[in-house]
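May I ask you to review the protein record following this short note?
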Amino acid sequence: LAQSPDTARGFTVCFLTGRVMCVVSLIFPFSLLLDLLPPGVCSLLNPAAIYANNEISLGDVEIYGFDYDYTLAQYSNLLHSMIFNTARDILIEQFKYPEGLGKYDYIPGFAIRGLHYDVQKVSCTKFSLLGLVFHCVLVLVEMLSVIELYGGTQHIPLYQMSDFYGKGPSLKQFMDIFSLPEMTLLSSVIDYFITHGIEFDQVHLYKDISDAIRDVHVKGVMYKWIEKDMEQYILHGDEIYAVLNRLVNHKKKLFLITNSPFSFVDKGMKHMVGKNWRDLFDMVIVQADKPNFFTDRRKPFRKLDDNGSLQWDKINQLEKGKIYKEGNLFDFLRLTGWRGSKVLYFGDHLYSDLADLMLRHGWRTGAIVPELETEIRIINTEQYMHSLTWQQALTGLLERMQMYQDAESKQVLLEWMKERQEIRSLTKNLFNPQFGSIFRTFHNPTYFSRRLVRFSDIYMASISCLLNYDVNFTFYPRRTPLQHEAPLWMDQLCTGCMKTPFLEEMVHIR
């Protein structure tokens, strides 16, 4: 590739002159790359904005529902370290794993949400196997090895993803924010076993770690940490009060459905909203056992008194200011009459919180994606925009010039492909060195991103984003181009002036 001291990039363009094929080196000044970026393009995206997958008018929404953990209550990263350390110690003390595991600490930013973990083959990857795969913290599996592992394909058939312990697929997808320490612990244990030459059964290892993580939640250890130091663990408390109070002032009804216990929720809400937080809600349901709450009709509602103790009377109505435990959505709909698109429910888990509500019950849904704020700030950097623009330019050149197969042209194409791959890796690494963005695997949306589009009408970094919009605001999704619609992508802007070879011959094809 042609380079000069005054340029940051250079490329070679192949073109046809009569019957003679020429290879001419053109200098592509870095200043031209900057000119391709419109002014202000690096600050276009607002991290506090709400993004729409479907058109939705808040003016039509009469009832707002909320999950608690990572929806109303956002937690600091310190919580993940505590979960990791406690589960690691459970493995050592109760499951008799090697004491050497105690040297492993939580690695912030190692894993991302949406990864698939193959219980049988011990790998952690974004669907569908594009890019590199980490199967432990220190061992990187090359792409060719992974493709060979899955029978020579990047695509996994559905039959390989069926039943595991009767609860889910053999390819486990980690969709919960709480799963970040679990993925890191899985990687750490596997790394220790491989490093020390210890044989292990992948299925047993996965089950043990899953049980250790579950114990941290089920036995209430995590709740005690948070209750002991609300200031250190809970974020954005004042903003949550502002959101809820604003909705109530505009005559909206509010309800809470969470899997967390009442005492924990009560202390957290008092910290964020105040001692009279229950006055803002028309319904409060704790220990709901989602997603079963949305699909199973069997569990009846139980009432709790102000101290959180169970009452024994049959529930024939859901009263404002009262606390209810368990229950099911079918009784909830029957007793409240809150159906259809007048209800908007917010949650952080695409499956447990949102999928059934949208697909089976017709509610509007809002996904809370805390990672969105960080990713948008990265997208807004000049480094990202320049890398993306150059990558698109190279892609366009490769597509248009690949028919030239003489020796010199092939060498140029190989150089372009090499540079394109380097830029793709650089762009991915801006988000996460191991797995990239939670929304995109190179040019493809991730499986997480596809589920986000399918199960949420709107998505945002936190509930506080609602403060930036009027209560009657209408969200309109942008028209995203399909591949056959020839959008004005940057690679076409960069290379659109080039004549397509054999265009005259192609005109006669019908």
